Amino acid sequence: MSAAETLARKSWVLLHVGNRRFALPAESVMELAPPVRLHNFPHTSRFIAGVIVRRGRIVPVYDVAPVLCGRESSVHRFYLIADRAFGPGHDAGEASAIPVNGECELATGEMQPPQENAPPYFAGTLAIENENIDVLDLQKLVTSAGRIDPGATNHAEPRP
Amino acid sequence: MKIAAQDATKARRSRSTEAVILFCIGTQTFAIAADAVQEIRSTDSLATAAVEMELAEVPKVRHLVERSHRTYYVVSGCAHFGLRATRPTLVLILRQIRTAVLVDSIERMAEIPVVHALPQAFQGAERHWYRGLTYLEDRVIPVIKPDGFLTPQEFARLDRAAKSIEARHELEGAVPA
Predict the structure, then answer these.
(1) Mean pLDDT value across chain A
(2) Is the pLDDT of residue A1 over 60?
(3) A124 touches chain B (CB under 8 A)
(4) If B22 and its partner were Cys, which of A17, B91, B107, B165 is the partner (CB 3.0–4.6 Å)?
(5) Contact between chains at B133 and A51 (C-beta distance less than 8 A)
(6) Chain B CB within 8 Å of residue A70 CB
(7) CA A158/CA A140 separation, integer angstroms
(8) Do A44 and B141 touch (CB under 8 A)?
(9) Is B13 a member of any domain?
(10) Chain A CB within 8 Å of residue B140 CB
(11) Do B124 and A142 touch (CB under 8 A)?
(12) Which residue is closest to B133 within chain A, CA to CA?
């Protein structure tokens, strides 16, 4: 197996958002957090649902369900925490959380190129158990989801 | 010697925490450094001293007040943070910054051990509003940046408007009724 093949055939974390399964590179995933309290405060960054506190760190929560599934999902109780790159060279990372339903599993597979006309936040696909699972590019996903709407302020009340 | 040692302990303790005032606008709690606030007054006590002003470019400011020969612009906390309108009862008059902020209530004073940087995920106006976030008694509370209520451009516009209000009042005073 070549180095490129080894790179492509790596471990993935499969996660559920809404009724769909997606994959993230396992090395970017930090932990699956239990249903902790979501804290909120006024801000203007769209698709940020609030923050959670994990291991003494304040972690932003991206509500990506509307982007990935076209609607909000009420079944999300857990948080998948992954590293999101920041900075010009993507050299600085920040823990970022995505609400998931808790059914996450580890899989190994070879990533194929994304389907034609796939949105830019799909880095590719995985063929696992007769299912084509889109691999998320977290950076592009939250960038497309997190475009700022200067007129909008998040009025959400803190949720238990 | 004993006293000096006690002072040193006290100094170490005070360096590791920061005194903040927790205040509420609507259902939201915010923190502001206690030493950034010069005075807390009721809106009723300032009502007679407040001068109405309306500037389309800065709609969150509807009044100015003169305090110790300085003009303070009164910012609606609701309008600033985009919260639902409430009936504020208190005014926080800030120190060193010519801003007074309308708030609903003071929750209490608190000592916070650390101000966490606002996560980089937040890229909107909140980067100007908050110094960071603090975690206090199972709550994440934004810590206000006192100079984030009004930009230098907004101050310049308000100063121009205040001058024209002053000139109008002088003219009205000079013209016999």
Answers:
(1) 82
(2) no
(3) no
(4) B107
(5) yes
(6) no
(7) 27
(8) no
(9) no
(10) yes
(11) no
(12) A58
Which residue range(s) make up the domain with B30? 18-174
Q: Which residues pair with B136 in a beta bridge?
A: B139
Alpha carbons A47 and B167: distance in angstroms, whole number: 47
R_g (Cα) of chain A, nearest Å: 16
Fold for domain A3-145? OB fold (Dihydrolipoamide Acetyltransferase, E2P) (2.40.50)
The DSSP 8-state label assigned to residue B157 in this structure reads: H
Task: Judge: B121–A94 Cβ closer than 8 Å, yes or no.
Answer: yes
Q: Is residue B98 part of a domain?
A: yes
Instruction: Indicate the residue of A37, A86, A155 with minimum beta-carbon distance to B120.
Output: A86
- B11 occurs within a structural domain: no
Q: Any chain A CB within 8 A of the CB of B138?
A: yes
The helix or strand, by DSSP H or E, that contains position A65, with its residue range, turns out to be helix A65-69
Q: What is the ipTM of this complex?
A: 0.84
Residues A93-131 have pLDDT tens digits of: 899 999 998 788 999 988 999 988 889 999 999 998 888
Whether this model's pTM surpasses 0.90 = no
Interchain CB contact of B27 with A (< 8 Å): yes
- Which amino acid belongs to residue A44? T
**What's the pLDDT tens digit per position in B66-87?**
988 899 999 999 999 999 988 9
The DSSP bridge partners found for residue B20 are: B33, B110
Cβ distance B28 to A37 less than 8 Å, yes or no, reads: no
Q: Does A147 touch chain B (CB under 8 A)?
A: no
CATH number at residue B158: 2.40.50.180
Q: Kindly report, residue by residue over B85-138, the tens digit of the pLDDT.
A: 889 999 999 999 999 999 999 999 999 999 999 999 999 999 999 999 999 999
